[in-house]
Amino acid sequence: MSDVLAVTDHRRGDLRDVSYEIITAGRQLADDTGGDLHLAVISGPVDDFAEKLNREGVDAIHTVSHGEEFNHDVYTQTITQLYDELAPQYILTPNSVNGLDYAPAVANELGLPVVTDTIGLSVNGETLTATREMYGGKVETTNELEGDAVVTIRGAEWPTADGTGDAVIEAFDAEIDEDAVGSTVNGFEEVGGGDVDISEADVLVSVGRGIEEEDNLELIHDLADALDATVSSSRPIVDNGWLPKNRQVGQSGKVVTPDVYIAIGISGAVQHVAGMKGSDTIVAINTDPNAPIMDIADYAIHDDLFDVVPALTDQFQ
Ligand SMILES: Cc1cc2nc3c(=O)[nH]c(=O)nc-3n(C[C@H](O)[C@H](O)[C@H](O)COP(=O)(O)OP(=O)(O)OC[C@H]3O[C@@H](n4cnc5c(N)ncnc54)[C@H](O)[C@@H]3O)c2cc1C
């Protein structure tokens, strides 16, 4: 019987979805180990967060009120102290910007192995089997770990936990060594804000590296106009400065759930798919029939975008 400690994630006063997903992942693991699921809620309005996170399957919630935002040293110190106190077998963290910041430090501090970006977890005896993707989602690998471990979970892979729980909520008295806290959050600055919120669009015409040159974007805008749709893109288009950051779909961009998502010259890398797989209908236009986007498309057009897009625009006009 071994316990699981899952760490929740928040930003600017809001819990992130992965905080509810990690309850589901943690509960499944705790069922495998026959132990309890503990949640750690660190910084921000912890009492309010704890109330929201008190969902079915959670046995205990430990709150640590220290500052408003994520801080590497505060998280690392708190989690190592919770590990010493609770002796869980597994520490689960989100595979988020924050989680990836402190999880390796916690593992290093505790002398534990760390496995990141997992999409499936199961325990048999003392062996944890963690599933990860490689090569842009073309290959799945299973990793076996013995004994205690730190595990980061990918967002949107486990359903969010619901149902009201009856967890014990208690303040954990973490002893933070303030001298060892080497950074502070001074504020937030939105990058590339703009006129359009792509997460609100019903139809998205999304463009990727297959477009080759900035001037060719005109084809995409023409199709979007004909459909009364909004233009979005994969990351390379934004990295090239061809579209502003607020148009980027994906793990480091926006999560979108339109009725129709038209992916043009986009391969479907896992970081892109993370942002659009909730679309109702996915149309992919790609010259490579083996591109991962073709696997999740409802309609796959295996052809050259420079032929297909003008033809579609003509039709819709
Ligand atoms: C930490 C991290 C975060 C990331 N976050 C994001 C993110 O938020 N969003 C994101 O998109 N990416 C993100 N990425 C990058 C991601 O891994 C991919 O590199 C990126 O999504 C690839 O973009 P793409 O599909 O446009 O380009 P490519 O992978 O180069 O694909 C281009 C596609 O166009 C097709 N093509 C070429 N010519 C034509 C033609 N004439 N007609 C039709 N099809 C054609 C090709 O067959 C290919 O499939 C992230 C990466 C990392 C490491």
- Which band does the percent of strand residues land in? 25-35%
CATH class of the largest domain reads Alpha Beta
Report the total helices: 9
**Largest sheet strand order:** 7-11-6-1-4-5-12
Name of the CATH architecture of the largest domain? 3-Layer(aba) Sandwich
Give the topology string: H per helix, E per strand. Answer: EEEHEHEHEHEEEEEEEHEHEHEHEH
CA gyration radius, whole angstroms: 22 Å
Average pLDDT works out at 94
**Ligands bound to this protein structure:** flavin-adenine dinucleotide
- Roughly how many Å apart are the termini? 64 Å
Q: Give the tally of β-strands.
A: 17
CATH level-four homologous superfamily name of the largest domain: HUPs
What is the general shape? Answer: elongated
